[in-house]
Amino acid sequence: MFRHRLEYVAVRSLIVVVRFMPDAVVEACGSALGLTFYALDGSHRRVAARNVAAAFPTRTPAEHAAIVRGTFRHFGRLLFQLLKFSTLSNEQMLARVEFEGEERVRAAYAQGRGIIFVTGHFGYWELQALVHGLRLQPMSVMARALDNPYLHRLLEEMRTRTGNGVIYRQGTLRRALRVLQDGGSLGILIDQHIASRDAIHVDFFNRPAATTPIVAALAMRTGARIIPLFALPIGHGRYRMVYEHPIEPPPEGTEDPIHEITQRCTDVLEMYVRKHPDLWLWMHRRWRETDARRGTSDV
User: pTM for the full model?
Assistant: First the structure.
C-alpha cells in the first residue's frame, strides 16, 4: 500500500535526523509528539482518563489529567529514544544504561532451566532487551507483527541487532519451549487484554483483567525462573534496567498455581505502575469486560 511505503519513508527519514540530534532535542521532540497526539487523539485520551480515574479514585481530577498528559508525553519520548538507540553502537548503548539486580539474572542462568522476563508496556520496554543481550545474553521476545510490513521489518531489525530473536504468534508455544529447554530466556509482556478463552482474570488495580497464562504455564512445564524486568528513564537519554527478585512458585497443593503465578507477576507490574503512573500505557483498554458493563467503548 502507498500509505505503508509513505510511513516507512517518514520513519527512515526521521532516523537520519535523530542520529544528529542532541539528547535534549530528542527528549523535547518526543514530548512534543506525545502532546500533539494528546491534543488530537480524543478517543485514546478518553480511554486513558477513564482508566486513570478508576485506578486512582482518591486522586484529584487535576492529578488524573497530569498522569494522562504525562503518559502521552512519555510514549512520544519512547519513540524518539528508540529511533536514537537504533543509530548508536553497542558501546554507546551500554554507556547510557545503569543495571540493578543483574546478579539475580546470572544466578538464574546458572541453574540452566531458562528465564522468563516479565514486563509490560511500561517505561522503556522496547529498549531493555537491546542492552540485556549485550550485558548478559540475548533473549527471545514475544511480539505481535505490525500491520505495516515495511515498518515491521524495520522494527525487527532494531530488536534483533544485539542478537535477540523475535517470536510471533504462529508456533509460539513450541518455539518458546525450545528456548527455555536450551537454557535461554524469553521476554513476555503481560499487560495486554487477552480475548481468548485461555485468559486468566487477575486483579490489576482492584479490577479483574484478562491476562495471558503463558508465563505461568511455561514456568511450570520447564522450571524456568520468572524475573520481572523494567527499564526506567533517568533523564538525558539514559535509563536504569531493574531486574526484580524472581517470582517464587506457589507451594505444592496450591489450588490454582497458574492463577497464583499470574497474579504475582501482575502485582509486581502494578507496584511499578503505581510508583511511576505516567510511564504506563493507560490508552489501552485493559479492562474491557468492566468497560462493557459500564457501556463505555471508545476504542
Answer: 0.93
